[in-house]
Amino acid sequence: xxxxxxxxxxxxxxxxxxxxxxxxxxxxxxxxxxxxxxxxxxxxxxxxxxxxxxxxxxxxxxxxxxxxxxxxxxxxxxxxxxxx
Length: 84
Hints:
By secondary structure, this protein is mainly β. Helix content is 6%, strand content 58%. The protein has one helix at residues 6-10; strands at 3-4, 14-18, 21-25, 31-38, 41-48, 51-58, 62-68, 77-82. The strands form two sheets. It has a five-stranded antiparallel sheet, with no helix packed on it. The chain has a three-stranded mixed sheet with strand order 1-7-8. The chain is globular. The two termini are 18 Å apart.
């Protein structure tokens, strides 16, 4: 199980799932990150204006999903804490 910090919901993010995929969305429904679960691995796809960034991590290394606001932006960001 992956922990979801309350900041995720407090900043208006939601999640939706279908099959082995979880979609992390902004409050207007735009998908920001997608997590695809394949055996003991998770493929994380971060959707950005210029394209997508993708990386794979062990499921056990994912600590939590959270949200925050940086000092130079007004929109909240979505983070995934991964153990090193």
